[in-house]
Amino acid sequence: MVKLNVNPTRMELTRLKKQLTTASRGHKLLKDKQDELMRRFILLVRKTNEMRGEVEEELQQAMKNFSVADALLNDKYIEELLAVPKERVTLDVIEKDVMSVKVPVMNFQHDSDLADGPLEYGFLNSNDELDQSIKRFTKVLPKLLELTEIEKTCQLMAKEIEKTRRRVNALEYMTIPQLEETIYFIQMKLEENERAEVTRMIKVKNMGTT
């Protein structure tokens, strides 16, 4: 490790010791932050995987129902049926602070009773597969929106973890070792100067007594 290019003086030694104390304290705080971020990140990833499995299974079933309906029904009828949505979904995005990470909070406004309510189209040209498909898509919508929020939070936390990790490593493997080596060098240099000064004074004293 290359030491810092400083003058080996007591003033410089005091300054570097203060820097080392600050760097060591900063390293501990960042390491604690990194550990807590990792803990929360792992919990979110587990929740994401669980929710993703549920959402994907529901979507697959909905797509199977829709594929069968599409094969049996007139394409123009399905197109007209789905052209105008039954419900409007609004989204408000705000931010909250999680360990210095600005993560989104997505507030979705939608009819919570939509999945249980009657489908607003005629049943004459429809079939059960289409009905089931639309109901499944409607039912999975809230989970899909929640999954979107959690996955975005995971992405932002992963970036912050990586940034924190780089700062921790920079302090641990570069800044702190450089300061420690430079402090050691100055201490050795000062002790060497003191010994040289003592030796000089002894010689001067001996010359005065002869």
From TrEMBL:
InterPro entries: V_ATPase_D. GO terms for molecular function: ATP binding; proton-transporting ATP synthase activity, rotational mechanism; proton-transporting ATPase activity, rotational mechanism. One of its GO terms (biological process) is proton motive force-driven plasma membrane ATP synthesis. Pfam families: ATP-synt_D. Keywords: ATP synthesis, Hydrogen ion transport, Ion transport, Transport. Belongs to the V-ATPase D subunit family. HAMAP family: ATP_synth_D_arch (MF_00271). Produces ATP from ADP in the presence of a proton gradient across the membrane. This is V-type ATP synthase subunit D. It comes from Enterococcus devriesei.
